[in-house]
Amino acid sequence: MRWMRMLGGCLTVMALAACGSNDEGGQGKLKLQEGQSLDLMQECGVDLPQCPQGLSCLVLKLDGVSKARCVDDSKVCSELVSCTGGTECAILASYPGQVVCSGKCTSDCDSTVSHSP
Fold this sequence. Notes:
- This protein is α+β, with helices and mostly antiparallel strands.
- It is about 20% helix and about 30% strand.
- It contains 2 helices and 8 strands.
- The strands form 3 sheets. A 4-stranded mixed β-sheet has the order 4-3-7-6, with helices on one face.
- The radius of gyration is 14 Å and the shape is globular.
- The termini are far apart.
């Protein structure tokens, strides 16, 4: 149930962002938590084999590069990645799912998604 509440809030946030919110700071950036790596995690996607049972195919954009990996979605935001600038990690429902930072970013933001002039 926790992920459903998080998902509902995230979809609302993403809908606002898609409508052109003028968030001057941009969006928070995903960062791997200390000691974590995607290197040993199975790649996934539409044309690749399904993830093993218990894992979900999620896209994580790290340092401007999107990578789809099989991960435990119950732990991705708590143990694998964190968000910068006071934003919160959330998972968008899609296939593959997308891990994003939601909320207003106040520092160390991804300016490439900023809508300011």
